[in-house]
Amino acid sequence: MSTSTDVESAARLISFGMRPKQLPGRDVVYAELVRRYGEDSAFKQLTHSVAAGLGLMVLDVSTQAGAVLAATDESVFEIKMDSYARQSKIRERRETEKVLHGLVHLATAALGYPRPDDLANDTYIGRVSVEQVDGVVREACRILDERAAKAERNNDPLSDAPELEQAWRAYARRPAAAATKDGRLASDTTRGMVSRALRFLADQGFLVQVNSEQGGTYRTTPRYQVQVRELAADSAFEELLELGVVAVGDSAGTLRPSISDTL
Predict the structure, then answer these.
(1) Which residue intervals of the chain are DSSP H helices?
(2) Model pLDDT for residues 176-190, shown as the tens digit of each residue
(3) Is 209 helix (H, G, I), strand (E, B) or coil?
(4) How far is it between the farthest Cα atoms of the chain?
(5) Distances in Å between the alpha carbon of 21 and those of 1, 207, 239?
(6) Burial class (CB in 10 A: 0-12, 13-18, 19+), 115
(7) Per-residue pLDDT, 259
(8) Which of 13, 39, 172, 208 is the most buried (most CB within 10 A)?
């Protein structure tokens, strides 16, 4: 039978997981709770129950990533698009804008972990840059443009196309980059949009910035790997990978030189 102390410990483990940049290696109490979660099946189940009561799912608990949580639908902890818009300073919150930011996040995940082996390897660390993500989305837009043109020639309704094909026009017609007076990327450019998205992921503990050149380059974290494993089941993620715009190189999982020269 669980005691009040056990429940408090389970809740504390969940609270650690809700601090994006907190890791077990930096806190002995957190590390002990992670150890107990892995060794005590009753405590593990109790942790899942407490999380469920808060509208959360426990995706993984490990010494590398800590407690990785995801909010269930309608949970008070769910990050709505409007909340994301406020945090990442999205000026326009129209439906098209939401889809575009979703496309940027899909491209970031696909670049960070372009192969199933990368997601399965707990030691794999991916790198993504603003320039890379923008390039991938623009290439996806070009391919989708060709697909749409072919569909029109064949009299196929565009509305029957996959969801990624609905956003390419809006992204493709925006300029890639333009500097503000103080040298920053203008917010209404695609690279400005990508830059905000990557900073948001860094704030959530999913990425770590390694340099700020050309908008910034980031490395992935174990916490992000767990999240992308869940995302990989999404049909839109599969559609993006199937377009063939994310190139991978050798068995070590490094990106091809044409993409990774900026890393």
Answers:
(1) 4-17, 28-39, 41-53, 81-88, 95-112, 116-120, 130-153, 168-172, 190-203, 222-231, 235-242, 257-260
(2) 765 555 455 555 688
(3) strand
(4) 68
(5) 33, 10, 31
(6) middle
(7) 33
(8) 13
Query: In what helix (H) or strand (E) does residue 207 lie, and over which residues does it extend?
Result: strand 207-211
Cα distance between residue 173 and residue 224, in whole Å: 30
Supply the pTM of this predicted model. Answer: 0.71
In one-letter notation, the amino acid at residue 204 is: Q
Token pair 């608990």 is found at 61
* Residues present in the chain in total: 263
Quick check: 47 and 14 in contact, CB under 8 A?
yes
139 to each of 168, 187, 214, 222, how far by Cα in Å? Answer: 10, 21, 19, 28
Inter-residue contact 221 to 37 (CB < 8 Å):
no
Q: pLDDT tens across 163-178, in order?
A: 555 567 777 777 776 5
Tokens coding 15 = 């609270």
